[in-house]
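U., I forgot to send this yesterday:
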Amino acid sequence: QVHLVESGGGLVQPGGSLRLSCAASGFTFSGYTMNWYRQAPGKERELVAAISNLGGSITYAEPVKDRFTISRDNAKNTVYLQMNSLKPEDTAVYYCNTKLGRFLDDYWGQGTQVTVSS
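Result:
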């Protein structure tokens, strides 16, 4: 079955960096766009970044555009989110996501907590 597992979250000070990883299995990873979402307390889940199946098309949400980098390694079935210059407002649970099948069903990882605080 489809399985997405995030790792790499933690507590960092403002201005710090983290790299999140999402290990995928159960589908042909190289055939699908991968996404990172985040959800902060009291806020809706929002798309942070997306990367197309071969990495040729990348999208970022405006608040992270100059600070985060999404990448993927199809040989390892893994997508990454490098987060630099972190701000307190980046604090959220970060989720790996893909949309599969003819109806583009959503598949989610369990989430990893990122806390940016001094």
